[in-house]
Amino acid sequence: MSHILNYIDVAHRCVKCGDEMQDFNSKISGMSKIEELSQNTTCIHKMHPMSKLITTLVYVVTVISFNRYSITALVPFIFYPVILMSLSETPYKPFFKRLLVALPFSAMAGISNIIFDKEILATIGGISISAGVVSFISIILKTILTVFAVLILMSTTKLTELAFQLTRMKIPSILVLQLTMTYRYISVLLKEASTMFTAYMIRSTDHKGIKFKDMGVFLGQLILRSMDRAERVYCAMKCRGFNGEYNRTCSKRINLKSYVYMIGISSLIIIFRFYNFSMLLGSLWG
Amino acid sequence: MSMISVKDLNVSYPDGTDAIKNISFDLQDGESVALVGANGAGKSTLLLSLVGVIKHKNGTISIDDLELSKKTLNDFRKRIGMVFQNTDDQLFMTSVMDDVAFGPRNYGIIETEVKKIVDETLVSLGIMNLKYRMPHKLSGGEKRSVALACVLAMKPSAILFDEPSSFLDPKARRKMMNSLRDLKCTKLIATHDLDMALEVCERTIVLKNGEICADGKTKDILINELFMDECGLELPLSYQHIK
After folding, report:
1. Which residues in chain B have Cβ-Cβ distances shorter than 8 Å to A158?
2. Which residues contact A130 (CB under 8 A, 6 or more apart)?
């Protein structure tokens, strides 16, 4: 009887271990989700990368340029990610997951405003709204909008295309290379971590993740293995003529549709920057 | 005319250990040569030094009278391609198309021509259906074919293969062997798969502790049980069955 119970316990542990490994591996494969989305062929994906890059830059700079108490003026800017995500058939879930990584940083920055900026700006239904709360909401809104804009750009444009357009914009090639290599090696690092984690969990007794006492060795080995792997990838790149920058001798020209997209959306963004359409609509009804 | 010529090649590891000792051999145009040896014999080190990834201490490596040096490195690598043992090290772009185009783009070929080369290469290997796929989502056999396509797209005169049949199931291995046989360029194939060496290569070079201990007809070398045993190897499986 005790043998049977032992087997059940071992089987239970294996299932638990398998679940954890699957969870870890699914998280890793989720990291490449945005990259996979850039392979789609919707009308937004087909736009010239330069037009998308410039439009995103205009959008991000404009959103950031609003003062810290602007909330209503930012409302029309919500349409940009919503419409683009709909046209590019991009799912919301992976974006929200990535947003959750960025939000705590903005929240931490915004909380200090709530504490120190206590001037009352408005009273709604007997509840006083301080300037700190307004600026907190503004910071969070700006974070959501800018993060979504960048994620939309990445999910509709291949990284190599983006890198090439950045070099065309005279961004130093060393910076562009750093960006692309970092992005590329994240997946290399994660693959190594996944393999090591699987090997660890198979031999682990309690299957509760990596023990604190093993963490140092695990991370040290991870760095060594990923450096070794990165070296091999770099060798393979050198063997195919890589000399430090992604080369594209000639890129497709910006077509009329892409010009219309870039100029049209950028113009709308600038108009929304200088005219508060939320207030205008409100005053019409008021 | 000798196609690849290696003379008195010596390679050391950073810790000073000699990995390759006084190696000399010539590869003729269109020749298929197997490079066999036990683990640690220096096969991969030799291949990497032939493409200038590992610097040699002394000796000369040349292809069609172009000698490998810092100045000629780019031109040299255009003429000699290398397919790595682990395809994950070789495939790093977001799509098969971009990965195959990586080499030609680096050599300044115009984009319209690059696209043509990519299509031609994929069609020649029968993997056009993989063109828009993500390399890391492919099967082992598909990855191996794409890795070969990446090198073929650069139209090299010679290709070095590091364990081309590793990680492959029997059918994928057979497909890879057929692809190797169909290739007209000069091939140097480092492998433990002695049956593949028997089928694909007419000549074999045996390495032992960084030195060449045999260079001759594949069949003559690989069926010599005593010699193979001395080199830390075994007879090919097909011959073990006969025995």
Report:
1. 94-95, 98
2. A114, A117, A118, A119, A120, A121
